[in-house]
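Trying the structure run again after the queue cleared.
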Amino acid sequence: MAEQVTFTPLETVSKVEISVRCKNLKDLDVFSKSDPIVFLYERLSPSAVWNKLGKTEVIDNNLNPEFSKTFLLDYRFEEVQYLRFSVYDVDNKHHVDNISLHDFIGESFCTLADIVTAGQEYNKTLRSNGTSRGQIYVTAEEIQDSKFTIQFQFSASNLDKKDFFGKSDPLLEIAKSQEGGGYSLVYRSQPLMKTLNPRWPGFELTIQKLCSGDWDRTLKLSVWDWNRSGSHDFIGSAFTTLREICPEKGGQVFNLELINQEKKKKKKYKSSGVLNLEMVKGIPTHTFVDYIRGGCQISLMVAIDFTASNGKPQEPSSLHYIGQSQMLNQTRDNEYMQAIRSVGSILAPYDSDQLIPVFGFGARLPPNGEVSHCFPLNFNPQGPDVFGVEGILEAYHYALRQVQLFGPTNFSYFLDKAMEYASGSSMAQAQQNYTILLVITDGVISDMTRTVDKIVAASRLPLSIVIVGVGGADFTNMEVLDADDTPLVNQRGVKMSRDIVQFVPLRQFQSRGGANFSLAKETLAEIPTQLLSFMKSKGIKPNPPPLRRQETFSQRIPAPLQSAVPALQQTYTQQLVPTPSQAPQGIHQYYPPEQQLQQPYPQNYLRTQGPPPSYTSLGTPSVQPYP
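Done. Tokens:
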């Protein structure tokens, strides 16, 4: 039996070309101007080692260089791709890669998402030991060859007969060669029963999925005789490239002989059939990068489970427990905090104002102990938004000390709120908005029927739902909602119009190294495809990249927090985390946990229409908060 190939899931990857120029560089040469060069480094986590991706050419005697050599990167929405641009004045052109021989001008840090979302050009200050050494300007342009969808129609004739009592049940597989050897599966058809001359249904693949954007990468096309046991019988295979079979690239191969190497040893053997390429058509397509660069706004909403099944927050066994690491004397992240950090860090750069509405569900609220299945964690219904990922965490910590965990686990209420946000944001060709709801929960859904109805309705809105399961509960219902294989159907028999739900159990990744990175990658991988399916269904195309001025951190901070800016000389990619001694005048101090019950909600990350109600202003509660 011939070697089977392993299945590789769909990756949403675009090829982007990075161009660099600098302005007003520090002159480090005495008798002439600096001879600058830029080195680009990448890493996928803040603690990882920097990997050098390449360098530009050296430009002599120029403090405002525009480099012709560019960098080619794979852009992945579901990953944080940290970049470092390091600029040197080259002193030894015979050993350009040996940076110890050159004078360091300055460097700048960002993420690839920062560059992609910046519009036409992204710029930052180059610094050395905190001192400004000039400006760097970076642009990202998607490679056109990666923006193709390939449509296929295959048939076969005179296939070998494999079944003793009947004809073969042929299925078709396509695999692409890997750089390290071997092949990875990119497509498998359904089998056609009892025929030696099959004509499989047409299908399409992105060029990235098919051949990683490489028109000359070897493709292996194999035909198998399907068996119910899963042990299929090999009929034959053929090898080609996309360039050879695609007419748009001059391809003129229309038929391929299927060869079985085992049978080839026989003298009279010619082939095991012929694979006919009835249609191979390359169609230019819009990509996720096109929409983001065209100004499509991504908005995040968060819903957090406060039901009693999580356990009392003050007990170490609780999923909401916030303990102290004795060795590091720091707060240790529980599973909810891990999910917030890992997923939020990916989505935050795409949210232009960083204002994130955050809700809880399944808790009894002060002062009367009323159960709520959708309450703002800052207890301000008129302004449920918090600022950035740290704002989500602060609101979460605050709410834990105000509410009593209760139940049941109802999803439909906060789904109504998410649909309200998604339908309330204007969606048109000129103004494009897309909402992502992050749900973090520990257990079984109590209102499953209503939840399915809401998701079916939401599938027609610009909305995606990401569910992260924490703890070790039974997540069978969550997997049903994921609906990768079986689309959801509501009580009236209406089927969901597109897949909008992705479920991932957190503990599946905790045993791995880089758990937060793996969780985010798995959780968010489907978002670009879901956004594209919505835009396509509405006939909405990407807009041209706007001529957009680079925003500073201060310009991204909500108006009520503007007074904080002078004391916080940070870029917007850095988190705003004031301490009691450092909190700028004009915003409330951050209060330690033991004082938070006597103080108003901290305002560090909050957009409000005035001060939110403090816990003590709500009267004498019948439900005592946890200490």
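The chain has three domains: 13-145, 148-284, 296-538. Worth checking whether this holds up in the mutant runs.
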